[in-house]
Design goal:
Layout (H helix, E strand, L loop, with lengths): L1 E5 L2 E5 L7 E4 L5 H12 L3 E6 L2 H13 L3 E6 L5 H14 L6 E4 L14 H29 L2 E6 L12 H21 L4 E8 L12 H7 L10 H12 L10 E4 L7
Parallel strand pairs: 3-4, 3-6, 4-5, 6-7, 7-8, 8-9
Antiparallel strand pairs: 1-2
Length: about 260
């Protein structure tokens, strides 16, 4: 394994995922795009899932330009039917298999509970909870039949503590944390490892609009800064790899130490 120092942190490159097919949802930007690039660097054939084809093709082009293997797959995760369709397309593009599933797609609206419309509640739970649930339902059995696989769910540090305005978002990710543990118990005995990552404040295209609010939130952690997407991606890649072969049902904080204080 080769360690390369980069401007945004320690980037690990290797070929430990060679021959494996990885599906990453919400992979057209931010943490998802960084994860797709990182898994491809490690040798995986990455299926870049998202709604925006132009951005998806740009991520795929970047991976291919660096010598990696990737394909774009259109993903609408608003219903169980569309999620199942994505799973079928991914298996087809993957040559009959998906070995790694990264449930990254999600939304994170903030605001007072009393001002939250039912439509927003339903949309958050549909994407943050229902979509991962049915992707696991579709793909985990196949992993188990082949004797192994890895699933990594993207949670958040605010699933661990109460924060004003984050009841809806935090509760949806707290549900995902429980699902992570339940799936580890359900599929772990059949060789499928299921874990989760809890990012802290991360600088992405979406969070850029938060400005000083993001910096203030990040300042509360021992690290004192927001993460780069690549730093979260490295934690995801670790849990997806054989280096984490004895890690099951873990919810790994990658939050600069925020939930430790």
């Amino acid at each position: 394994m080769e360690f390369v120092q980069a401007t945004k942190g320690l980037i690990v490159t290797s070929t430990d995922l060679a021959g494996r097919v990885a599906l990453v949802t919400g992979a057209t930007s931010g943490i998802g795009a960084a994860t797709a690039a990182t898994l491809a660097t490690r040798g995986a054939h990455v299926l870049v899932a998202g709604r925006d084809q132009a951005r998806g093709e740009a991520v795929v082009g970047g991976i291919r330009g660096r010598g990696g293997k990737a394909d774009f797959v259109a993903a609408d995760l608003r219903s169980a039917q569309s999620v199942r369709q994505l799973a079928r397309q991914a298996v087809e593009l993957g040559g009959g298999r998906v070995d790694i599933l990264v449930n990254n797609a999600g939304v994170y609206p903030f605001g007072p509970t009393e001002q939250t419309p039912e439509s927003e509640f339903d949309a958050v739970y549909a994407l943050n909870v229902k979509a991962p649930f049915y992707l696991v339902a579709e793909l985990a059995p196949g992993m188990a039949e082949r004797g192994g696989g890895a699933i990594v769910n993207l949670s958040t540090m605010v699933a661990e503590y109460g924060a004003p305005g984050m009841a809806l978002y935090g509760s949806s990710k707290a549900a995902l944390n429980l699902l992570t543990k339940a799936w580890a118990a359900e599929y772990g005995p059949r060789g499928v490892r299921v874990n989760a990552v809890e990012p802290g404040p991360t600088r992405t295209e979406t969070t850029a609009g938060m400005g000083e609010d993001l910096a203030a939130l990040a300042a509360q952690a021992p690290a004192g800064r927001a993460a780069a997407p690549e730093e979260i991606a490295e934690a995801i890649a670790y849990l997806a790899s054989d280096a984490a072969s004895f890690v099951q049902g873990a919810v790994l904080p990658v939050d600069g130490g925020r939930t430790a204080v």
